[in-house]
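$ run holo --ligand "2-oxoglutaric acid" --emit tokens
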Amino acid sequence: MPTQFPSAPPAHACAPALHREPLNPIDEDQIAAYERDGVICLRGMFDANWCSLLHDAALEVMASGAGRVREPKLGEGAGRFYSNVYLSDLDERFRKLRDESPAAAIAAALMRADTVRFFYDQLFIKAPGTAAPTPWHNDLPFWPFQGNDLVSIWIALTPVSRETSGVQYVLGSHRWNKMFRAVTPDYDPRFLDESLELCPDYGAGEGTPAMQTMSWDMQPGDVLCHHPLTVHGAAGNQSATQMRIGLSIRYLGRDVRWDPRPHTMSLRHAPGVAVGQFPADDVALPPVWTRERGHLSTVA
Ligand SMILES: O=C(O)CCC(=O)C(=O)O
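-- output --
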């Protein structure tokens, strides 16, 4: 089924105009909800030009086979669950997202940050009929950092619902301050830290019964923003026709400390700072936005 995008302002040049600020302002109630729940769905933050640009880039990068691709091996006819990171190293359209899009200002608002640094971007595509789930997890155990000021902005590039593998969250779970064992979609053993507890499968009813899980029906251009300790996961894509594309872009703010533990992901450049320091390395984690200047249009 072709993806329908929300209406965009008219473009006057050949290249479509791309807005740099969120289409809707983020208010104090939304920031407070993010702080309370560890996740928020913000509606209509990217217009149709952005969605169409990124949607096409996502499908092209998947077809190219380039990058740090991760895919569980699924049987014939069982669909495809594709994930890839550091897309902004592969394609100018993802660099635009990193450096010139509303994403950094959204991150700044939610973290109440004056400066926002780019951490990495990650694509999650589930083909129609893909049974493979996104295992329940929280993100900080994957990452060589400590701190609260890390936010992921998951941009819907197709319509999303529970049926098409909408991401589900345990509201408030970031306040448990708990690190669950990192599990990648392809169950890469390098991430499996046996000293950490396995995350319950909340989708299968595990965990404390009173836990409230939440997911949102989304349209392209809506975003989910989550805290690094918020527990989340997703079922497979049960639609026979609708592809599900989510693009996460992750930023960091103030209180982050460099903490490269054995089972964490490797960055494309390790920050040149001592363990326990703020990772103020402009190549590894380029500053992309400040409250004073707006976008810095850094190219790492
Ligand atoms: O899209 C998905 O299935 C997973 C997304 C996710 O885990 C993330 O963005 O951190």
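-- notes --
The CA atoms of residues 39 and 226 lie 4 Å apart.
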